[in-house]
Write a structure and sequence with these properties.
29% of the residues lie in helices and 15% in strands. It has 12 helices and 13 strands.
Length: 416
Amino acid sequence: MKNKTAAAIIACIFISLYLFTGCNNSGSSEGASSTWKKIDWKTADSGAYANFKVNGLSPSCSNAPGTSSSDFYFFARTGSSNNLVIFFKGGGACWHKNNCITYSTVYNKEISETVDDLESATWNVGGSLDGIFDITNEDNPFRDWSMVYIPYCTGDLGWGAGDKTYDGDAIRHRGHVNFRVALEWITEHFESPDEIMVCGTSAGAFNAAFNFPFIKESFRDSQLYLIGDSGIGVVTDEFRTDPDNGIVSWSIQPPTTDTLPDGSTFDDFNSAAISDITMSDIYIAIANHYDDAVIGQYTTEYDTTMTMFYNMMIEIDTPANWANYSGVWCDWVSKMHDILDEEYMDISVDADNFHYYIAPGKVHTILKFDDMYTMTSNSTALLDWINAMMDGGSAFNNVACVDCEEPDTETFPSCP
């Protein structure tokens, strides 16, 4: 009975995860291409990347039990301007036998998207063309930008460069390897964009921030922006430090002067232990070092998916409790605020290039949905905040909801 209960709860988690990590695309707009192309790293550019490796490993998806393919690939579309969006898809995470193998619906294990999916967007929730991918919307600031869409299928937040065995089954945590081969292709096909927006949703937000220095150092003359959508790093100490069941087991390759392109002076993590690096450290380091870049973080006040994963870290040995996260709800909210305030205070001392946007409600991610065009928090429209981020307007400031639309308190506690 316990296994059946756990399975039912994991099914609910699966639905929650995939409702809010799908991505949508395309359409047509005057001056912008509507054609997506699949980029297979093994054959692209006449096999130029066929021998690509990082940490001795080739690009790959998880190769988890039950998957039909471990092939990694990505997608690109050419726009009419000399600007570029690099988008990192989300899709959960795994770090323990329970969520990597036994109840593995909590992360994307293989790539499901096709070019037809991206062109039609029928695979997204509602089948709509929304958010930054809706090139038919004249309010979309990115509608004439080129785009590279990097799928996620490794369970490691896009940070890993190692394979880990869980109870006899090896998971290929090669998200960073996958990113690096995509970046290799990007640098060959986009010589010097005027502006680059690096963004990601959910796990993709972690991916975008952690790998930002690799992009910045590859395009030193371009103006770069970063938006982390729904990836606030509220985690447990065990998740960061456990050598067997935590991020340490992913064989993470942090940005250092040794791993970044030649000539980089980004040395904040040169001697840092992986277990000591927090998401706050990453945002603070990149904002202070690259003070010409403009960086923002977005979240809702009561993000249910991020709260669930925080609870999963606490209850990793008891899968039946993963979705019962009401007991940690207020703890997540409090720590989310502390993290954003810490980042802002430690960044603004040296540079005024970082701000956050806390929206009302509990919905996870926004950049790929039409809510991006209607969301308002404390009288500031999210679209105005994003536009001001890129044009230097006053609307790019710290925004926090006042009426935060607290969920039903019969199910969830009222937070102070």
